[in-house]
């Protein structure tokens, strides 16, 4: 067994991997095929690309903010700025791995701003809605 760290989309996972072919020779009983030399071609130069627009800085979460508990796609935002919400009220829906998760208000308050867009991506811990 070998312990490895795998990073997927910026998230690190520690995994145990069982090495099945340990101790078995990987040398082939067949000789390698002959290598034929080809005339050298002129190097290909990729065209210069324009730099991507910088991403907007993430909004810092405050005590009254509703943050996404998981990464996924925002299916709906069920409130608008100025709405009063009760604790436990559904304010949004996020889809991850083909499952919809209702996002609820952690406490009562008034919606001050919305930082997620229906149809857009959201990261775990990102502020979705600021309550006052």
Question: What does this entry look like structurally?
Answer:
The protein is mainly beta and 132 residues long. The protein has a domain at 65-131: RNA polymerase II/Efflux pump adaptor protein, barrel-sandwich hybrid domain (OB fold (Dihydrolipoamide Acetyltransferase, E2P)), CATH 2.40.50. Helices cover 0% and strands 39% of the residues. The protein is built from no helices and ten strands. The protein has strands spanning 2-8, 11-17, 65-67, 72-77, 84-85, 90-96, 99-104, 109-114, 121-122, 127-131. Strands 3-10-8-5 form a four-stranded antiparallel β-sheet, with no helix packed on it. The mean pLDDT is 80.
List keywords for this structure.
132 residues, mainly beta, OB fold (Dihydrolipoamide Acetyltransferase, E2P), four-stranded antiparallel sheet, 0% helix, 39% strand
